[in-house]
Write a structure and sequence with these properties.
Oligomer: single chain
CATH topology: TIM Barrel
Structural class: alpha/beta
CATH architecture: Alpha-Beta Barrel
Largest sheet: 6 strands, parallel
Number of helices: 11
Radius of gyration: 18 Å
Helix content: 25-40%
Number of strands: 9
């Protein structure tokens, strides 16, 4: 009997519904890292966790809470999807370093140090200047390393990202972005950053969000997978995974919240434009969660081996989970 493949999507922000849970099953996703907050404070983030906890409780045939790599293995063996919580901003820890351990205890496993703007920890990719990791940021990184809350620099600026890689005693992640040598979006990452990330044992998750794709909504599967092949040649296939950044069924009012939060009274278009302020159309080969396995065909076509494809589609993230979701052990 051929063992079913293990797939992990290491970043989604879908408008959750039972239909999406069914699609996760159709796609064979053994784990999904879901976005719990953008600009929410601690209490509001806890409310979002409560909502997700109740979804998991109400759908035990489809979902389970994810805390460790072994939870992914259990979900894979039982045909479920393990749900891992992550933050796309550091807003939930407010200005209290003690909340880092608390959010980890509540189930958070990834936290971005900044989301597009300057934060108390680091600089976002849309700021004109990047002074790097702040004093609080250095302390926060040390505490995140201690408890096993993974640093995510997907929306951070380049100097801040390089400093985070250097300061962190554990590998960090860029959960959802693509190389800027393929498509020069401000949210994508230059060779220098990805090389430093992967050399330090970190992980890059490739995004299918159209603003991150060469050709936007018309990007082809061939182009996307050729980019992954080039990245594997440059950085090694074992450091690569998928973080789709899928925002399926979200209304355009949500993208306004993502970009504006509470910090702006005017419209900030971020990755969009004044002519196209809402969510862009997904490429045809990845229009919904159920399309996740389509990438296997593309990766086969560009010459990846079976083991390399298994790694990129999920097993590389699983290894990273095993190594980084728990507290630092005794030296």
């Amino acid at each position: 009997m051929t063992q079913k493949p293990l797939y992990i999507d290491n970043l989604q922000y879908t408008n959750i519904s039972p239909a999406h849970f069914d699609e996760m099953a159709v796609a064979g996703l053994s784990a999904v890292h879901v976005t719990i907050c953008y600009h929410e404070n601690f209490r509001q983030t806890v409310e979002n966790m409560i909502t997700w906890n109740r979804w998991v409780e109400a759908h035990p045939d489809r979902l389970m809470l994810g805390r460790t790599g072994d939870d992914v293995r259990q979900a894979h063996a039982t045909g479920k999807t393990a749900i891992f919580y992550g933050f796309q901003n550091c807003a939930p820890i407010e200005d209290d370093i003690g909340l880092i351990e608390i959010v980890h205890q509540l189930g958070a496993r990834f936290m971005q140090l900044s989301y597009n703007n300057q934060s108390l920890l680091a600089t976002g990719c849309y700021e004109d200047e990047d002074p790097g990791i702040t004093r609080f940021g250095k302390q926060a990184i040390a505490e995140m390393n201690r408890v096993g809350l993974v640093i995510d620099m997907s929306h951070s600026a380049h100097r801040s990202t390089l400093e985070a890689i250097d300061i962190s005693s554990r590998p960090i992640s860029i959960t959802h972005a693509n190389p800027s040598w393929w498509h020069p979006a401000r949210r994508n990452k230059p060779d220098e950053v990805i090389a430093a990330l992967t050399k330090a044992g970190g992980m890059l998750g490739f995004s299918v969000y159209p603003h991150h794709l060469a050709g936007g909504s018309d990007c082809t599967l061939d182009s996307f997978c050729e980019m992954i092949a080039e990245a594997a040649e440059r950085y090694g296939a074992r450091h690569l995974g998928i973080g789709t950044d899928l925002c399926q069924d979200q209304p355009d009012s949500v993208v306004e919240w993502m970009r504006n939060g509470r910090w702006s009274r005017s419209t900030d278009f971020g990755e969009g434009s004044a002519d196209n302020p809402g969510f862009p159309r997904q490429p045809d080969w990845f229009s919904s969660i159920r399309d996740f396995p389509n990438m296997v065909t593309g990766l086969q076509k560009v010459g990846f081996s079976q083991d390399e494809i298994a790694g990129i589609m999920g097993e590389n993230w699983l290894r990273f989970y095993d190594q980084n979701f728990g507290p630092v052990g005794p030296s």
